[in-house]
Write a structure and sequence with these properties.
Distance between the termini: 13 Å
Structural class: mainly alpha
Number of domains: 1
Mean pLDDT: 92
Strand content: 5-15%
Strand order of the largest sheet: 1-2
Shape: globular
Number of helices: 5
Oligomer: single chain
Number of strands: 2
Order of helices and strands: HEEHHHH
Largest sheet: 2 strands, antiparallel
Length: about 90
């Protein structure tokens, strides 16, 4: 899967169900307990989605914000901002 396709897939997943996105941990279980490598995780941060899917985070995630994705993810106000970030990063892909 291309970086652009992956970014758009994650954006669509979070847009369809905002509870799939989290902050302050790579992943969390349904009880909101940090579960960075657990198969029981139900939501992920930007880098957690990459870890879940076994992909390297596209460089466009950092380029789109001119910074570190993990810090930016935790600064977002809501899932809609996350979706916008991922779509903006996808637009930067060739």
């Amino acid at each position: 899967m291309s970086a652009k396709a992956w970014l758009l897939k994650i954006a669509a997943e979070v847009e369809a169900d905002p509870s799939r996105w989290t902050q302050g941990a790579f992943a969390r279980s349904g009880k909101q307990i940090s579960e960075p490598t657990s198969l029981s995780a139900t939501c992920w941060c930007a880098l957690g989605f990459a870890q879940r899917d076994g992909v390297r985070p596209p460089v466009e995630l950092a380029v789109a914000i001119n910074g570190k994705p993990s810090i930016y993810n935790d600064s977002l106000a809501n899932a809609a901002e996350f979706v916008s970030w991922f779509r903006g990063a996808a637009e930067l892909c060739k």
